[in-house]
């Protein structure tokens, strides 16, 4: 039986992640209180408004339990705002900052790509994802008021970068190396993406995440995690094709 995956459900795109898990035949549950983390096999921290999510997590006294869960070595994936939470350091925050879970040895710029109006979709190169999960060597990434990783530690594996259009200035141009910024990483049991895979029909990032933990090793060859990345089951929510 597949272990249960928790999705932090304080605010943001948690329903979309739960819908993808259902498509893959994996049980997902909402996490709103510390006790909801008990007996989970993995955890997804979704995108949303990071300051609001942090305030709600503080209200429910979730931060100590979330940090403990990260230390268990079980897979934890942060998308967009979730990436910010997992970072050891965040810059570009509002006055007073926000509490972080930490564990991912990187520095994240909280609002690197600008306002909601500057959200965009683009193809990014994902060689490691394609090698592990098959499918095309690119992924259609959806960036919504997205963060970016400015620095990554030596133990952090870079899975994807975003290449800036020639001649297009950015607010963090001086921090870029060779016109690129990091948008997806893995460090041991932690996965972070600056974009929203749960808003697309391509389930490879979810499959990649589900195979990160020892609890899925024997299940990796089952139909729920099989090679058909373009599978079309019941779609619970709108997705980008």
Automatic annotation (TrEMBL):
It holds the Pfam family SNO. GO terms for molecular function: glutaminase activity; lyase activity. It is an enzyme of class 3 (hydrolase). GO terms for biological process: pyridoxal phosphate biosynthetic process; pyridoxine metabolic process. The active site is at 80 (nucleophile), 196 (charge relay system), 198 (charge relay system). L-glutamine binds at residues 48-50, 110, 144-145. The keyword Hydrolase applies. It catalyses: L-glutamine + H2O = L-glutamate + NH4(+). Its EC number is 3.5.1.2. GO terms for cellular component: cytosol; glutaminase complex. Keywords: Glutamine amidotransferase, Hydrolase, Lyase. InterPro entries: Class_I_gatase-like, PdxT/SNO, PdxT/SNO_CS. Belongs to the glutaminase PdxT/SNO family. PANTHER family: PYRIDOXAL 5'-PHOSPHATE SYNTHASE SUBUNIT SNO (PTHR31559), PYRIDOXAL 5'-PHOSPHATE SYNTHASE SUBUNIT SNO1-RELATED (PTHR31559:SF0). This is glutaminase. It comes from Spirodela intermedia.
